[in-house]
Write a structure and sequence with these properties.
- It contains 15 helices and eleven strands.
- By secondary structure, the chain is an alpha/beta fold.
- It has a six-stranded parallel sheet. Strands 1-2-3 form a three-stranded parallel sheet. It has a two-stranded antiparallel sheet with strand order 6-8.
- Bound molecules: D-allose (AOS) and zinc ion (2 copies).
- D-allose (AOS) binds next to loops.
- The site of one zinc ion has 5 residues, from loops.
């Protein structure tokens, strides 16, 4: 299924008058409105292939329907999202779940939807069919060099798939850790991981980045070998200039100050990319902005400040990606909600009066500083985000149009009750 230009135009025409009233009202008081719209138009958030199917929990999985059964259909799904919002112009693949049989065909299919290939993700957290050694006790950190070698080779294969598709980054997330004290020698586990990553790093093309993702706990509950941003930064620093830390919002211990982590990683030039999601407890992988929208705004506030300070382009300076997986909502609707929440938080961060904030900080005027941030956060910028979509030829109300066009019903007609188990 494809969404046609005319269908979007008809939808937008119906909402045009209402949108114009809201847009005129809000933009009157914002002098830099054009520059904010421009930046929103540039900003793209990659969609992970594993978020397109209904996620599961270890207790059960309630299947959706009309879900993509192969890579072509996953690309079609992201194409639909991108047509609706023009902000989801990339897909992030997961090997071996998404092995492209014919890279050229896959590439041209993606570009027919205006999509690029974001970071490729390796998977050494599950045993694959026909694999010689098991990852039960870890992969890159494993005590047995034969297991490490197998995991390194898998990552090299993933890089090669990525090269064929035009990806520019490899994301490594490891389930390596221990669940009982004494199970691991921490130093050896770290050293083994570093040595394995060095071998992978040696195969990275010149213009590629390696993203080292950390996670505080789960699947292991005593230690994770790359458990926090310190361990990730240590590895990225030892590896070299193409290695960076990747921040997944759900991978911290409760109440961690993620915005401060982001700020310092940017200062060190070592923040590489982002996995957006939201959570109340841990790695809940809920819709971005659904639980802690103020935190999302504060993170974007640091991103904008830090990227401007180091001269990084907002759209291309970091890898932006969603990492979420649910079992209650239609995954496509959920992704539209996530992208919208991210855009709103970004727009609000762009609205912050940086000069006034700097002054307030210099004067130790904490009341003023707090007010500046909260003023921006409490401004309803939905019409500005919608205007950016309108100018890009996307829908004023993406979820509204998704429902008007009965997209899910159409997909069920095309694909049947197909449902796939993906995601972690
Ligand atoms: C796992 O918790 C991490 O968030 C990974 O980034 C990701 O979910 C995984 O690689 C996808 O299976
Ligand atoms: Zn992640
Ligand atoms: Zn996660």
């Amino acid at each position: 299924m494809r969404i046609e230009k005319e269908q979007i135009e008809q939808h937008n025409n119906r909402l045009a008058a209402k949108h114009k009233r809201a847009f005129d009202y809000i933009s009157e008081d914002i002098s830099e409105v054009e520059s904010i719209i421009n930046k929103l138009q540039q900003f793209q958030i990659a969609i992970p292939s594993w978020a397109l199917g209904t996620g599961g929990t270890r207790f059960g999985r309630f299947s959706g329907k009309g879900e993509p059964g192969n890579l072509e259909q996953k690309i079609e799904d992201v194409g639909l999202l991108h047509a609706l919002n023009r902000s989801s112009g990339a897909i992030s693949l997961h090997i071996p779940w998404d092995i492209p049989q014919n890279a050229e065909q896959i590439k041209s299919l993606a570009s027919s939807y205006g999509l690029q290939f974001d970071a490729v993700n390796s998977n050494t957290f599950q045993d694959q069919e026909g694999q010689e050694h098991s990852y039960k006790f870890g992969s890159l950190h494993h005590v047995d060099p034969k297991v490490r070698k197998q995991a390194v080779q898998h990552n090299i294969d993933v890089i090669n798939h990525g090269i064929a598709l035009g990806s520019k980054a490899l994301t490594v997330w490891l389930a390596d850790g221990s669940s009982f004290p004494g199970q691991l020698n921490f130093r050896e586990a770290f050293q083994n991981t570093l040595e394995s990553l060095k071998e992978i790093y040696a195969h990275l093309p010149e213009d590629w980045k390696l993203f080292v993702e950390y996670k505080a706990f789960e699947p292991h509950f005593y230690s994770m070998t790359i458990g926090d941003w310190g361990q990730s930064l240590l590895l990225a620093t030892k590896l070299g200039s193409k290695a960076y830390t990747l921040v997944d919002l759900g991978h911290h211990l409760p109440n961690a100050n993620i915005e401060q982590i982001v700020s310092l990683l940017l200062m060190e030039g070592k923040l590489g990319g982002f996995h957006f999601n939201d959570s109340k407890y841990a790695d809940d992988d809920l819709t971005a902005g659904s639980i802690k929208p103020y935190q999302l705004f504060l993170i974007f506030n640091e991103l904008v400040e830090g990227m401007d300070a180091s001269g990084l382009d907002h759209a291309t300076g970091l890898g932006w990606m969603i990492d979420a997986s649910h079992n209650l909502k239609d995954p496509l609707v959920d992704l539209l909600q996530s992208v919208d929440a991210i855009m709103i938080a970004y727009a609000q961060a762009l609205l912050v009066d940086r000069v006034a904030l700097k002054e307030a900080q210099r004067d130790n005027d904490i009341v003023k500083a707090q007010q500046i941030l909260q003023d921006a956060f409490r401004t309803d910028l939905r019409a500005i985000v919608a205007e950016a979509r309108l100018r890009d030829g996307a829908a004023l109300d993406p979820i509204g149009l998704y429902n008007e066009l009965s997209v899910r019903e159409e997909l069920i007609k095309e694909r049947g009750d197909n449902t796939v188990a993906t995601g972690l």
